[in-house]
Amino acid sequence: MYKKLQYISQGQTNKKQLYNIHEALDAGCNWVQMRFKNQTAKETYTLAEAVKPLCEKYLANFIVNDDLNLALQIDADGVHLGLTDIKIDEARKVLGTTKIIGGTANTFEDIQNHVKNGCDYIGLGPFRFTNTKEKLSPILGLSGYFDILQKLKKNKINIPVYAIGGITLRDVNPLMETGIYGIAVSGIITESDEKQKLIQQLNEKLNAKVIV
Ligand SMILES: Cc1ncc(COP(=O)(O)OP(=O)(O)O)c(N)n1
Ligand SMILES: Cc1nc(C(=O)O)sc1CCOP(=O)(O)O
Ligand SMILES: [Mg+2]
Asked: What ipTM goes with this model?
């Protein structure tokens, strides 16, 4: 069973990235996606070298954004691939079946394609506008999630779907009611002054039993 809360790291420098990741782990986050954009291979490798043992110390999953070769080299728990990154089935040939491969989706068809190619989970977004990612796909909103999750159910397609994009604490319950599995967040954890309380609140909502 995958954890339901994924922290996507932020920071313009190695030092800030490591600080933000350490703070999130120390506050109870147990799944980190290292997302360090527009850096040299050396910089990203150096950061990954430091993040991996930290995630091991906190018994947290560690996946790498975009960079399949880095995920392989550093022996991360997996990789998250976008719509313009290497294809899921190609990545699977490199990482094998024991590693986690996540894929970005904006439509039902994106998800269908990822499932066909052996993806382990879906990051479906964006929920709403966010400054964290530069080139956003069309905003889905709650109705977008509801429609896509209904189509997945109707077509008996079962894969963990994580909502992403501008998500706040108050969005969790309505998003969970659409049928998503979990959420991936960046800004609300990075910017929180009460990270431990926030992560506890997020996890309570994410793991609450839905009474049908
Ligand atoms: C869980 C999750 N979902 C979506 C994304 C977005 O990935 P991608 O489309 O590759 O965009 P960048 O993150 O590379 O800007 C993600 N990283 N994680
Ligand atoms: C990394 C990412 N991908 C998105 C997508 O829609 O594919 S939105 C996003 C940013 C998530 O960060 P925040 O929680 O700060 O909005
Ligand atoms: Mg990407």
From this structure: 0.98
